[in-house]
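Bug #77: duplicate submission created two jobs. Keeping one. Sequence:
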Amino acid sequence: MRPRILLADDNTSLLTALKRLLDWSYTVVGAARTGREALEAAGFLQPDVIVVDVILPDMDGLDVCRHVTTGLPHAKVIVLTASDDPAVEQRAFQLGAAGFVLKHRAGDDLIPAIERALLTRMPAH
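Kept job's structure:
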């Protein structure tokens, strides 16, 4: 069974590109354009990995990360961002992110980040 991925970003073009990138190895189960949509979809779809942008219209990706890591501990979160601010990266990991990927490096770094996250996931109960 292929790992299930949920994407969350408010940029439709980026969502399309990420889906194309990931469809080779994973099942992309959904795409959300807001933080609240991402949380709702995560609860319903039960993905293995959620790739979430830091900046979303209604709730930032770090809040999504915090909610997911406490409410859906089997799902791993990869934070995707255009910001290379070390404080944002540090905060993401403090909130339970399994990975941190810069958008301009997603083509090279996202799949390895997902693979590392999948290696550390706990089985669902």
